[in-house]
Design brief:
The protein is about 35% helix and about 10% strand. By secondary structure, the protein is an alpha+beta fold. The chain has a single domain (about 10-60), classed as Factor Xa Inhibitor (Irregular), CATH 4.10.410.60. The protein has a 3-stranded antiparallel β-sheet. The longest helix has 8 residues, at about 55-60. The chain is elongated and about 50 Å long.
Length: about 60
């Protein structure tokens, strides 16, 4: 049986923490930043946990 390939899009978007949790960057921080408040942009810079309902699919794409 051949090896499982990692999904190229997923490996750019998700990362695994040391404890095994999955993290992703938040949306809305790519463009049109001029009118967004500094507080909002700072909050959007923080990574978020992948939702529990999506964890199984993301792990499969990453080959975890």
């Amino acid at each position: 049986m051949p090896k499982m390939k990692t999904h190229s899009g997923a490996k750019k978007r998700f990362r695994k923490t040391g404890s095994g949790k999955l993290m992703h960057e938040q949306r809305n921080k790519r463009h049109l930043l001029e009118h967004k408040s500094s507080r909002r942009k700072r909050r959007l810079s923080q990574d978020q946990l992948v939702d529990g309902s999506n964890t199984k699919q993301v792990k499969k794409m990453l080959g975890i």
